[in-house]
Amino acid sequence: MKYIYKKADFNCRKCPRLKKFIDENRGKYPGFFNGPVPSFGSDDPELLIVGLAPGLKGANQNGVPFTGDYAGDLLYPTLVKYGWAQGDYVIEKGHNGLVMPKARITNAVLCVPPQNKPTGEEINTCREFLTSELSNPSIKIILTLGGVAHNSVIKALGGRVSEYKFGHTNVHNLNGAVVINSYHCSRYNTNTGRLTNEMFENIFEIIKGILE
After folding, report:
1. What are 121-129's contacts with CB under 8 Å, separation 24+?
2. Degrees (nearest 5) of the Cα angle 45, 46, 51?
3. CA distances (Å), 180 to each of 88, 132, 141, in order?
4. Domain contains 39
5. Helices and strands, counts by H and E, the chain
6. What is the domain range of residue 176?
7. Tens digits of per-residue pLDDT, 130-151?
């Protein structure tokens, strides 16, 4: 039986601040996607990757998570290298040229936030869609990119953040789910050396080891 995901309405108004920001950007950038960015990849993934939120001129422009910004320039080639993605990462609106038969990517918050910073209330409001993503029984590993994504995943799984602390390469077992943490593959983290290519690839080596 095919798993049915709960999806956000394109004109979702659950978060007034985010809806206002999207409405403003529909005026500034009429060619952008400008809506809650849907998940990308397999409908029945073994690996679910959870990021923070769409970037204004990345996923918010193209309508595909991590597409069109620096984070995607690191994430997608790494997924290809480790066999989680196939094809060419070609950035186009609504498509990035890759297929991911066993992986899926989503965000803790589906709408682009001002200054890339969603509020706690907005993260909590959007968690119903994250919970739906996490409920797919095909998932074996959940990779959280950054502390915000990690904390929202832990809460969605019914855990206490204080008991499952975020840390690069940390692995958590919670209610039958395996959660692994990575620093977010953002330009800031890579430029400052907080996350190197080798550190990011090590995450996928750990995932490989868990699944073997």
Report:
1. 121/15, 122/15, 122/17, 122/18, 123/148, 123/152, 125/14, 125/15, 126/8, 126/14, 126/15, 127/152, 127/155, 127/156, 128/6, 129/6, 129/7, 129/8, 129/36
2. 75
3. 26, 19, 7
4. yes
5. 7, 8
6. 32-211
7. 999 999 999 999 999 999 999 9
**Residue 148 CB partners (closer than 8 Å, separation 6+):** 52, 108, 118, 123
- The structural domain count of the chain equals 1
| 204 contact partners, CB below 8 Å, separation of at least 6 | 78, 81, 82, 84
Which tokens go with 203? 């995450």
Q: What is the CATH number of the domain that holds 114?
A: 3.40.470.10
With respect to residue 45, please indicate whether it lies within any of the assigned structural domains.
yes
Distance between CA atoms of residues 141 and 131, nearest Å: 15
For 18-33, the pLDDT digits (tens) are: 999 999 999 999 999 9
- The whole-number pLDDT of residue 2 equals 87
**91, 94, 98, 103: CA torsion to nearest 10:** 130
